[in-house]
Every structure is written in structure tokens, then in C-alpha cells.
Design brief:
With 159 residues, the protein is an all-alpha fold. It is built from eight helices and two strands, in the order H-H-H-H-H-E-H-E-H-H. The protein has a two-stranded antiparallel sheet. The longest helix is centred in the last third of the chain and has 16 residues. The N and C termini lie far apart (68 Å). This is Transglycosylase SLT domain-containing protein. Pfam families: SLT. Keywords: Signal.
């Protein structure tokens, strides 16, 4: 019961203002406050289909950027594309059998020419554990470049 001289409506306005400020981005979070079950909240989220990316260099880069954003890995389309073109010319099956890594028994593989130990150490969850998989290769290489150079955008030569 409100204290003497206070209006109930003021409290409702505060709630309305806070929900209006929150916008639709937290509607799922706000639903349980109004008695929605987690099942009904998840029904809304599951109706959105995942983004379909084309099975080509553009699609692989865009999908990798999406995965990277989910994991806080920095990088831009341009930085990734520039490095891919230098390292493999866009061939996800590229393998370097002549450099010092290959001589040591760990050839560089895939779009961004990642060696197996680096791929294993910097593999990003949610991608296949396969250095030839284009998205897994890009995300692992960008994860490594972020750790070593701050971002794949800062890489302008062999790394």
C-alpha cells in the first residue's frame, strides 16, 4: 500500500520508462518478469533461422566474422581478405610443402596457412576441428593474430 501522499502511478511510470529504455533487445529477459516460462521465451528465439552464408570466399569470411564477434576476436573483412589472398589466393585446400615449417614436418594449411600446433592452440569453439575447414581456419588464424599482433588487420606479411 502506498505511503500517504504518494501515487501508485509514479511507480508504474518508472517501470514503463525502464522497459522503454531497454527496448526490444531485452524482451526475452523481461518476459520472465511477467510470468513467461523459459519455454515460451525460447520459442520466440528459435523462430529465427540462422544466417545462411554462401560456400565461397565471401561467405567464409562473413561467417568467420560472425563467429569472431561472438568470441570477441577482432578483425575486419578487408584484413582477413588481404591476408588470405597473400597466403593461399583463396584456396582452402592450399598446403605449403616447401617452407621451414614444412621442412620441420608441420606444413602450413588452408586459407590463412596455419600450422597444426597453432590451429590446435587457437581453435575457436563452434567451428570444426579441421584446419582445412575455411571458417575454422580463418577464426583460428584471427584468434592467433589477435593474441600476437592485436588483430589480423595488423598483419601485412607472413606471420
Amino acid at each position: 500500500m502506498p505511503a500517504h501522499g504518494q501515487h501508485r502511478r509514479a511507480r508504474n511510470r518508472r517501470l514503463a520508462r525502464s522497459l522503454a529504455v531497454a527496448g526490444t533487445g531485452v524482451a526475452v529477459v523481461a518476459l520472465p518478469l511477467f510470468g513467461a516460462t523459459s519455454a515460451s521465451a525460447n520459442t520466440t528465439a528459435s523462430t529465427t533461422a540462422p544466417t545462411a552464408y554462401p560456400d565461397n570466399l565471401d561467405g567464409w569470411i562473413r561467417e568467420a566474422l560472425s563467429v569472431m564477434a561472438q568470441h570477441g576476436i577482432p578483425g575486419s573483412y578487408e584484413g582477413i581478405h588481404r591476408n588470405i589472398m597473400r597466403e593461399s589466393s583463396g584456396n582452402p585446400a592450399a598446403i605449403n610443402l616447401w617452407d621451414s615449417n614444412a621442412v620441420a614436418g608441420t606444413p602450413s594449411k588452408g586459407l590463412l596457412q596455419v600450422i597444426d600446433p597453432t590451429f590446435q592452440a587457437y581453435h575457436v569453439p563452434g567451428t570444426p576441428f579441421d584446419p582445412y575447414d575455411p571458417v575454422a581456419n580463418i577464426t583460428a588464424a584471427c584468434n592467433y593474430a589477435a593474441d600476437r599482433y592485436g588483430s589480423i588487420d595488423n598483419v601485412f606479411g607472413a606471420y
